[in-house]
Amino acid sequence: MYCTSPVLYPPAGSYAFVGGASSVDETSVLLHYVTHTRGWKRIAIITPTDATGQEADNTFNLLLARPEYRDVQLIDHEHFGLSDISVAAQVARIKQANPQTIFAWGTGAPMGNVYRALQDGGLELPVFGSNGNQVYTAMEQWRSILPHQYYQYALKWPVYSQLSAGPVRDAMGVMYAALKKDGIRPDGASVSSCDPAMILIDAFRKLGTNATAKQVRDYILNLRDFSGSDGYYDFSIGNQRGFSVKDCIVVRWDEKKQTWIPVTGVAGK
After folding, report:
1. Alpha helices by DSSP H, the chain
2. Which residues pair with 252 in a beta bridge?
3. How far from chain centre, in Å, is Cα 145?
4. How confident is the model at residue 52 (pLDDT cuts 50, 70, 90)?
5. Which of 33, 98, 227, 250 could make an SS bond with 167 (beta carbons 3.0 to 4.6 A apart)?
6. At how many degrees (to 10) do helices 88-97 and 110-120 cross?
7. DSSP code of 115?
8. Dist. CA 127–CA 142, nearest whole Å
9. What is the C-alpha separation between 269 and 264, in angstroms, rounded?
10. Tens digit of each residue's pLDDT (9 = 90 or more) over 60-107
11. How far is CA 231 from the centre of its chain?
């Protein structure tokens, strides 16, 4: 199985693999940018009560307990239900707490209620979201209510035009060209399945189409420096992903260009 959700943590050496970085790594890169690069130490969090929100809660609790974040103040942590009509009360409490930035976690339509409440509540603060909404259709739908300073985690695909020649840029070029042929602009959703597919194709090219499950698994586990459209994969790190925090960057949604602009290098630095 090759899953594209960051919330899966397969046992090392198993037959399950995951595309992209883990929830811990992607949240860590955002926290590093917020607290170390920008110096914002008073943060508020709002998360849904579903599985995604519970994963976010556990991740933030884990990261904020690290020594490097000992001077960070979580001044308010609000929750909302996916069926809630309004989150105005939660946003009012956040505003009263006076944070410097907000982590608004969650995916899909319910996040529209959060962004609308932030706008109606007059909270003009930097907002950091998960990459579950890193799709052009969502950005277009929320265009009138999206925070003016909106950041997300990403892998390396948004830096294509800035990369020098090399294997990763070549892999990105293949992906960009394939999507362009079908009239698709690369975003978090369209990119997430590309590298897992290319890794499996590479396995069958090397092993033949009659390869057993064990042979395919062992081939992937032994991949080192595999050049994908999101960077170099190294499965020797043992997390069934081949990626870690060193492969994550922070991007900002550019309202004028209507696309994601990298604001950091890897690991949020």
Report:
1. 23-32, 51-64, 88-97, 110-120, 136-141, 167-181, 188-192, 194-207, 213-221
2. 151, 261
3. 21
4. confident
5. 227
6. 50
7. H
8. 14
9. 6
10. 999 999 999 999 999 999 999 988 989 999 999 999 999 999 999 888
11. 15
What span, in angstroms and rounded, lies between the C-alpha atoms of 205 and 198? 10
Looking up tokens 């105005």 gives 88
Expressed in angstroms, the distance from the first to the final Cα of the chain is 33
Task: Look up residue 33 and give its DSSP letter.
Answer: I
Contact between residue 128 and residue 23 where contact means Cβ atoms under 8 Å apart: no
Residue 192, phi then psi, degrees to nearest 5:
-60, -30
| Chain Cα centroid distance, residue 125 | 20
Q: Please, which residues bridge with residue 208 across strands?
A: none
DSSP assignment of 196-222 equals HHHHHHHHHHHH-TT--HHHHHHHHHT
Distance CA 26, CA 153 (A): 6
Residue with tokens 């630095």, as numbered in its chain: 269
Q: Which fold has domain 23-156+249-268?
A: Rossmann fold (3.40.50)
Question: In whole angstroms, how large is the CA radius of gyration of the chain?
Answer: 19
- List the structure tokens of 68: 């490097």
Question: How many Cβ atoms sit within 10 Å of the Cβ of residue 47?
Answer: 23
Per the CB < 8 A criterion, the answer to whether 227 and 170 are in contact is yes
Are 75 and 42 contacting, i.e. CB atoms less than 8 angstroms apart?
Answer: yes
Q: Are strands 2-3 and 17-18 parallel, antiparallel or unpaired?
A: parallel
- pLDDT tens-digit readout, 22-31: 889 999 999 9
What is the C-alpha separation between 89 and 51, in angstroms, rounded? 22
**Alpha-carbon distances, residue 203 vs 158, 224, 239 (angstroms):** 26, 13, 19
